[in-house]
Amino acid sequence: MAIKILTEHINKPGIETFDVYRSTGGYAAVEKALKMTPEETVEEVKKSGLRGRGGAGFPAGMKWSFLAKPEGKPRYLVCNADESEPGTFKDRYLMANSPHTLIEGMIVSSYALGAKTSYIYVRGEMLYVIRILEKAIAEAYAKGFLGKNILGTDYSLDLYVHPGGGAYICGEETALLESLEGKRGNPRNKPPFPAVSGLYACPTVVNNVETISAVSWIINNGGEEYAKIGIGRSTGTKLISACGNINKPGVYEIELGVPVEEFIYSDEYCGGIAKGKKLKAVVAGGSSVPILPANLIVKTANGESRLMTYESLSDGGFATGTMLGSGGFIVFDEDQCIVRNTWNFSRFYHHESCGQCSPCREGTGWMERVLHRIEYGHGHTHDIDLLVDVAKKIEGNTICPLGDAAAWPVGSAIRHFRDEFEWHIKHPHEATKKGAVYRQEAVLV
Amino acid sequence: MIDHTQTQVRFPEETLQKVQEIIKRYPEGRQKSALLPILHLAQNEWNWLSVPVMDYVASLLNIQPIEVYEVATFYTMFQLQPVGKYVLEVCRTGPCCLLGAEQLIEHIENKFGIKINETTPDGRFTLKTVECLAACGGAPCLQVRLKREGGIHKYYEFLNPEKFDELVETEWN
Predict the structure, then answer these.
(1) Sign of the C-alpha dihedral computed for residues B111, B115, B117 and B119 taken in this order
(2) Rounded to an integer, what distance in angstroms lies between the CA atom of residue B37 and that of residue A134?
(3) Whole-angstrom Cα distance, residue A402 to residue A357?
(4) CA-to-CA dists, residue B34 to A136, A181, A430, B49, B60, angstroms
(5) Whether A51 contacts chain B with CB within 8 A
(6) SS3 content of chain A, % helix, strand, coil (to 5)
(7) Among B39, B93, B136, whose Cβ lies nearest the Cβ of A344?
(8) DSSP string of A34-90?
């Protein structure tokens, strides 16, 4: 049985209540942390090697150690629960089923950072999750784990939930802070980084739900124990939300290092491709990461077994690899059209671009229009190179990573499925027939 | 349809208390932070955000009306035109499309004789499409704000035309 850190008790009846959560050993990390110094707490997280689970994979302990501590200024911890990356639904699953897991992590992390007020920014659509969190927070206050002088110590903390309003861009940490201040979600220029000037121009740490939730286990068991789980610099466990053409869509907590092939075909996880079809492609870490054809997701270009780790998934760079990203694992079977999906993703990024930087504002719409005409049988032969060119000119030229996120799916789809795009352009009549799909036997698994 | 220019826009007493409680979550002088939560309350009260409603929200927070307009127009959850009693917001993003979202949208259009962003003549349903709702494991899915449940957006997952027809009869009355 694989180790479970975040979801061990998630199916226990009543786990959303304080008492049941407490009976499984919940809130022990708060008791332990309050007997340690904040610096010791940060040190354990550093030792654990825990990396940001929102997508970027930046070491959490290092992010924490960058937090400025000027006299007379409050510091803030903000939890990023604005889960909106297509393919990703792990945070919603965790918060809705076991809200105290996040709340306990928030208390311990706030203590480590010296935050007296912390916020959980939840995407507005998940108002029902907000209700669940607020109920759990009220219980934690009533039991003395939140509020003034927690468990009789000098440490006091207020924790609030804040709803978003429906904007993917607010998952970017500085856009999230703007949004929390009651403004449009336009990302800020960096530097200054939030660690120096974040919420209300005060030092702020923004962490993903899953990252913060893992902190309690690290405090209870020690950073070194956590670092023993997983492989190399991919320590610990990761929630993977699997969807698309598979038999068992859902959220799975895996020990980092599980082979991708096992994750797709084992009954413990995805349970194989639905309806006995062949596997065509996978987007392994949310819509922003490069799509890989089946043969390259199962094995690296060197023929090694591809593993679910930050390093193995990115093996080969963007030429033949991808990224672990947020853990949004989207599976495409042999009947899916890559051109149509790429157009769909392009429309998403065009819709969600905040409009601040012209390469992204104009480029995402441009890519969407070109992909639309290819998909609907009006493409030109030069359109493929045009797409590559536009994508390259967005990448790296915007304030926030949304530009990159919009460019990568287009660039990778053309890199790996160029002949499918060409087929659409050369045979528009055939390609626009209902249900028509270009079959590419060479990549199917 | 409520004409907000003709009636006085004011939250019930209970909601006003809630507004004060929300403002207290943020440091003094940072009451603008309460804008998104209060716009959600306003939308649930009046079904959509008209200019008089947004002006009222500005007055509650002691900020300029333009500060409310620019936020309300940025976030997709806020309806700036009158909408039906139930706004069906169907996910149109990749993972849902792999499992039939486009067919579902087509079915709804045909069933009600409306296109996306239109409202049925009886004012019961407005059809909208939205981007990823973080429910890809239950694809295809849609969300509906339910006033009777305090304005939560309820998710309906694993949909198909038959299941949708059933929900029309049993759930959205």
Answers:
(1) negative
(2) 14
(3) 10
(4) 21, 8, 54, 16, 10
(5) no
(6) 45, 15, 40
(7) B93
(8) TTS-HHHHHHHHHHHT-B-TTTT--BHHHHHHT----TT---EEEEEE---STT--H
Q: Which amino acid is at A74?
A: P
- Please list every residue in chain A whose beta carbon sits closer than 8 Å to the beta carbon of residue B92: 344
**A346-394 pLDDT tens trace:** 999 999 999 999 999 999 999 999 999 999 999 999 999 999 999 999 9
Q: Is the dihedral of CA A216, A220, A221, A222 positive or negative?
A: positive
Give, in order, the Cα–Cα distances in Å from A339 to each of A271, A375, B117: 26, 6, 26
Round to whole Å and give the CA distance between B55 and B50: 9
Assess A182–B contact: CB distance below 8 Å, yes or no: yes
pLDDT tens, residue by residue, A175-184 = 999 999 999 9
Tally of CB atoms within 10 A around B146: 17
Q: How near does any CA of chain B get to the CA of A361, in Å?
A: 14
Q: What is the nearest CA distance from B45 to chain A, expressed in angstroms?
A: 15
- B74 to A185: CB separation less than 8 angstroms, yes or no: yes
pTM: 0.96
**What is the structure's pLDDT at A69?**
93
Q: Classify A152 in phi/psi space as left (phi over 0), alpha (psi -120 to 50) or beta.
A: left
CA distances from A337 to A52, A119, A178, A426, A434 (A): 32, 41, 38, 16, 11
Radius of gyration in angstroms for the set of CA atoms belonging to chain B, rounded to a whole number: 18
% of chain A exceeding 70 in pLDDT: 100
Environment class of A395 (CB within 10 Å of its CB; exposed 0-12, middle 13-18, buried 19+)? buried
**Which pLDDT score, from 0 to 100, does residue B147 have?**
86
Maximal C-alpha separation, chain B: 52
**Tokens 């620019």, located at residue:** B70
CA distance A302 to A296: 10
A245 touches chain B (CB under 8 A): yes
Give the Cα separation of A75 and A104 in Å (integer): 19
- The amino acid sitting at A53 is R
Give percent of chain B above pLDDT 90: 91
Of B26, B28, B27, B8, the C-alpha closest to B38 is B26
